[in-house]
Write a structure and sequence with these properties.
This protein is mostly helical. It is built from eight helices and no strands. Helix 7 packs across helix 8. The longest helix is centred in the last third of the chain and has 123 residues. It is flat.
Amino acid sequence: MASKPDDLPMLALIETPGTIEPTVRDQALIVLTSEEAFDAFYARMKAETDKHVPDVTTDKGRKAVIALARRVTTTKTAITAAAKGLTEAWRQQTATVNAARKPIEEKLAELAAEVRRPVTEWEEAEAARAARNRAVIDDMRQAATVTLDDTAASVEERGRRIHGITFGEGWTADEETEAVAVKAATVQALVAARNRLRQEEADKAELARLRQESEERAAREAEAQAAREAEEAARRAEEERLAAIERENERQRQAEVAEAERLERERTQAADRARIAAEQAAEAAQRERDAEHERQLAAERAERQRIEREAQEERDRAAHAERQRQEAEAAAQRERERIAAEDAKRAANRAHVSKVMGAAKEAIMTCGVTEDQARSIVTAIKAGLVPAVGITF
């Protein structure tokens, strides 16, 4: 198959005066046996590669760079092949060729790497870009996880950060599709978590407010009680004539205090009931979260059991196949033994027949016939050619 121009070595750059269509081997031997020739050839080849303007933004441009680098590599391979293919007449120059080959290979390898560097750098940049995009997607996916340390504010701040992430330049269509889906799912999860945490924080704040109001009421009652006691001491200092009136007033005040205390007890009980209800709601929410966690663990256990069950089924299939192989091997062994037994039986039968016929031949020979005649007679009797005469084996 003919080589494409891009696959041909670059040894045609060597000028060989007086040579018509020099072969690749002839040209390779020139640079292998003359340092000056190689230096001139390398300079020409370097100038040829330097003329190429790499374009890594298109597939065609990258293929052109790779093709040029491949031509340099093909040239190195052609020189190496020529060096290895020296005939007996050239073996005296082995030391010279081997000494020249290594630096030539090194220079050409360096040149091939230099020519390919634009594509190599593009590939490295492409890998780094894909890694950066993957890190963004993983970060968005991880951001959907809400821990016990999170608050409504921290979740909302994280949601704003994820919502502010944009895609476009530097993203492939598949990457952007995945990133948009992950972003939408994460934002949705964070919004739901923020609303739930806001409600929990509001419940806690309400419980704290009710507790503070109860404490403030108790303080006010204590102050009122102290004021009443001071007033009572002043009244006791009043003249005796006001004692009866004062006792009546005191009775009325005590009745008011009792009523106030009753009302206060009712308010306190109502506050306690509200607090207990809030605590029970918080405990129910925690139980729901615990149940969800247990459901996730159960799903993971079911998945592990499925994997283990499939692995056991695979082991059972392998064991069944092994038993079938062993049974087939045993059947084959039994068949071989049966054939061997039949062969042995046939051999024994042949030996018995030969022995009986030999005895019959010897007996007939006693009648004065030759051995050949006796053998013919026995053979005829065995074949049933002699009427009313047979041989018992």
